[in-house]
Amino acid sequence: MMYFLDFDRTIFDTDRFMVDLREDLVAGPLFEKADGNRPLFVDLYVAEPSFGFAPGELSKYLYPDAAGFLREKENGVMIITYGVRRFQEAKVESAITGIPRISTIYTNDVRKGEVIGPHIGMYGTSPVFVDDAPIELEIFSARCPGAQIFEMRRDGGAGDGRWPVIRSLSELP
Question: What is the pTM for the complete model shown?
């Protein structure tokens, strides 16, 4: 079985990471939302030539169940992440250092279902997709019929109501 896992807020505690990152940088207008989706500082921060994270530096932000799940499923997991590619690459590569055989798809600003949809048949029957964002779940379910869709609610929220809600990767089939 193939598992497509969102990175932020599914396997990586993005909210805690952003609080810590903000404390490490400068508070103020750099943290205002530029486009309603991401803090302005992300664009400025990743433009710095020295931008990056040491291998393993961000592994402390993986949710407790994530590293074990990734190690257990290995080639059966594909991380798929939306956002500024240089920022996402730096986070993912640092966070999963030491976890072998995990592939990642960086979609930049293209929705995940749009990227995977044309190729979904390559991943067998009934692949699993897990994300916390209803827009991603909606598009993936429309573009990838037959996929099992799960809404990750690490925050304890009720969920959108259209997909089964999970709070841990251990709840997946």
Answer: 0.87
